[in-house]
UniProtKB/TrEMBL annotation:
<dbReference type="Pfam" id="PF01037">
    <property type="entry name" value="AsnC_trans_reg"/>
</dbReference>
<dbReference type="InterPro" id="IPR036390">
    <property type="entry name" value="WH_DNA-bd_sf"/>
</dbReference>
<dbReference type="InterPro" id="IPR000485">
    <property type="entry name" value="AsnC-type_HTH_dom"/>
</dbReference>
<dbReference type="GO" id="GO:0043565">
    <property type="term" value="F:sequence-specific DNA binding"/>
</dbReference>
<feature type="domain" description="HTH asnC-type">
    <location>
        <begin position="14"/>
        <end position="74"/>
    </location>
</feature>
<dbReference type="Pfam" id="PF13412">
    <property type="entry name" value="HTH_24"/>
</dbReference>
<keyword id="KW-0804">Transcription</keyword>
<keyword id="KW-0805">Transcription regulation</keyword>
<keyword id="KW-0238">DNA-binding</keyword>
<protein>
    <submittedName>
        <fullName>Transcriptional regulator</fullName>
    </submittedName>
</protein>
<dbReference type="GO" id="GO:0043200">
    <property type="term" value="P:response to amino acid"/>
</dbReference>
<dbReference type="InterPro" id="IPR019888">
    <property type="entry name" value="Tscrpt_reg_AsnC-like"/>
</dbReference>
<dbReference type="InterPro" id="IPR036388">
    <property type="entry name" value="WH-like_DNA-bd_sf"/>
</dbReference>
<dbReference type="Pfam" id="PF13404">
    <property type="entry name" value="HTH_AsnC-type"/>
</dbReference>
<dbReference type="GO" id="GO:0005829">
    <property type="term" value="C:cytosol"/>
</dbReference>
<dbReference type="InterPro" id="IPR011008">
    <property type="entry name" value="Dimeric_a/b-barrel"/>
</dbReference>
<dbReference type="InterPro" id="IPR019887">
    <property type="entry name" value="Tscrpt_reg_AsnC/Lrp_C"/>
</dbReference>
Length: 332
């Protein structure tokens, strides 16, 4: 057990212990503070104090995330080009929708990008072919179906930080997800649990009981089942600036079909990449990336992307402002 630390001064900069704590939460968002403290070799009070500080300085949130693919649903990435005077309003409206998980302003404030998780084909068509197409001052809408994820979801960028030793990670890692061949079906009680967890992944059993009207044992069993089948996992949401990431960019890579798998695997291994997936459309792969500065972005494009066989063209779009990441935060 390490020496008890003094109360840290308010700061947005994250130190090594903060990073290890974030990685602990990424591995198991519902891990008890006592287990996290044991893994990190610090006191329970230190972990609790750090969490409080991170919630303030880095806007830390642990959120439950639904893996739509396990329910037979399809994810979409939508790009909307619009006039500058409506971009923020449009982004805000999309962020408030429950079927969006990511919304950002890019490309000089004339483009909004969002990740959509429509619950049905009817909901998808109503949004893509009706509502968005008729929205005033929206110049164009392009929708790209996510065909295959190379990195992202349960494989979060924090896993590349290497803040924890393998034995520390193993002490926190939940049981492996069961293989599923057919889409799963959620019951009303499952939906009620998820409605709470997507807002607060560390909601107490008492709060989950109140939301479902079921006993603690039933709540635990349903929660364990959704985690075991991969329907539910937990993600950590926080500001990137305290980690020194001043530049965020979306890369749209035009890739020869025969090279999609190789390029995707290469991107997944790059520390700059937070998310990478094969999509429909002219750009066969989209990737979300982070850098300390624009010089690092240039180096990444010229040296790492430029060295990948099969990449024919790259469109780079800087993220000007993140409006929604998993859960809508009007204070962002």
């Amino acid at each position: 057990m390490e020496r008890e630390e003094a109360e840290p001064m308010p700061s947005r900069a994250l130190d090594a212990l903060d990073l290890r704590l974030l990685q602990c939460l990424q591995i198991d968002g519902r891990a008890p503070l006592t287990r996290i403290a044991e893994v990190l070799g610090v006191s329970d009070q230190t972990v609790a104090r750090r969490l409080r500080r991170l919630r303030t300085t880095a806007r830390l949130r642990v959120l439950g995330v639904i893996d739509e693919s396990r329910l037979g649903r399809t994810n979409w990435i939508v790009r909307l080009r619009c006039t500058p005077d409506v971009a923020e309003q449009l982004a805000g409206a999309l962020a408030r929708r429950p079927d969006t998980s990511y919304v950002s302003l890019i490309s000089g404030g004339t483009e909004v990008m969002c990740a959509m998780k429509p619950r049905s084909r009817q909901a998808r068509d109503e949004l893509l072919f009706d509502r968005l197409q008729r929205t005033p001052r929206v110049v164009s809408v392009s929708a790209h179906c996510v065909l295959h994820s190379f990195y992202g979801g349960q494989l979060d960028w924090l896993n590349k930080a290497n803040g924890l030793a393998p034995d520390q990670q193993a002490a926190l890692r939940p049981p492996p997800v069961e293989p599923v061949t057919d889409p799963l079906t959620l019951e009303a009680a499952d939906e009620a649990l998820l409605a709470v967890l997507v807002r607060d992944g560390r909601a107490t059993l008492t709060e989950l009981q109140a939301a479902t009207g079921q006993s603690e044992s039933v709540v635990k069993r349903r929660l364990e089942r959704m985690r075991a089948t991969g329907v539910l996992y937990f993600d950590v949401q926080f500001d990137q600036e305290p980690l020194g990431h001043e530049v965020e960019a979306m890369l749209w890579l035009t890739v020869a079909p025969a090279a999609l798998a190789d390029v995707g695997r290469a991107l997944a291994a790059h520390p700059e990449v937070r998310f990478a997936a094969a999509i429909t459309g002219q750009a066969g792969i989209v990737a979300s990336t982070v850098y300390r500065n624009s010089g690092e972005l240039y180096t990444y494009l010229s040296e790492k992307i430029g060295a990948l066989a099969g990449v024919q063209a790259v469109e780079t779009a800087l993220t000007l402002r993140l409006v929604k990441q998993l859960a809508y935060d009007p204070g962002r």
